[in-house]
């Protein structure tokens, strides 16, 4: 498994990665909760501190803000051409 961006987060990242590889049973419906969520939260908290220390958090926030409109376009429900024409003409 790959190392974390922040070396101080390597241990929790490795534990999360190992859990995630086993997590597919959750996706297949063999579990009712995400067993890895606590580890993910620990890793995210550790990484957030490192990103802030390096000034990367501000760059990420800026990138997210500048792409908000683009994201909205890509996350909008897609329609077939016929549906789009009906919508433009006020049809159902």
Automatic annotation (TrEMBL):
Sample GO molecular function, one term: phosphatidic acid transfer activity
UniProt-listed GO biological process terms:
phospholipid translocation
Specify the superkingdom: Eukaryota
Query: Mind telling me which residue stretches traverse the membrane in this protein?
Result: none
Might you report a single GO cellular component term? mitochondrial intermembrane space
Keyword annotations for this protein, in alphabetical order, are:
Disulfide bond
> InterPro entries per the record?
MDM35_apoptosis (IPR007918)
Q: Where is this region: Disordered?
A: 62-92
Q: Name one Pfam family in it.
A: UPF0203
Which family is annotated?
Belongs to the TRIAP1/MDM35 family.
Q: What is this protein called?
A: Mitochondrial distribution and morphology protein 35
